[in-house]
Amino acid sequence: GVSSLRLEADNDFQSWQWLCLHLYQNKGFKAHIYADNRMADNVSQEKLYIVGPRLHYRISDPISLGVGYLFLNIHDLNQDVWRNEHRGENELNFHFSFNEKLDFHQRNRFEWRWRESRDQPGYRMRSRFQLRYKTDLGRLKSVYTNNEFFWDIDSKDYSENRAIPVGLQFQITPALDFNLFYMIQSLHSASARSWKSNHIFGTHLNFRF
After folding, report:
1. How many angstroms separate the CA atoms of 170 and 144, rounded?
2. Measured between alpha carbons, how far is 90 from 50 in angstroms, rounded to an integer?
3. What is the model's pLDDT at position 194?
């Protein structure tokens, strides 16, 4: 059950690289292209590619909505087979500022997942809770921590947890910021009723046109 979740990373070491190309933004509307590359098996093999557009609209000061489409190419390392996935996303997000320095953000995302070799689409809910503290330390603009829960609707299983104990945001130029983070990804096997966890060192590059 949930109580058996271990946050100690004990298996694979991976590297994840995220990229957001922000194409348009005004007071309430944002559009960007998201891309993702992941290396697994102790950073020796390509595990995953993702690319696709996302749109967000702020309907009030604390609430925003989002939609997106992602194409994924996923490497099954056990069978050495690549499979495609098409993913649709809907989001309902909340943002609050405690003061000038400290922000809270909650992202709730519902996913439709059309996976190659499966007859029916799968459905998943995921919720991320994040705290961000703004700094005045040169190019280091903020420090953040978050945790994201994944609920597989088809199997009725708390299937994954992603904890980022610490992330750092650096402002390189007015149009470019660079994030470094350490993540513990915990994956639940419903059949084995057990968890395994991975160390992940990640980067996240945001470029604004």
Report:
1. 12
2. 17
3. 86
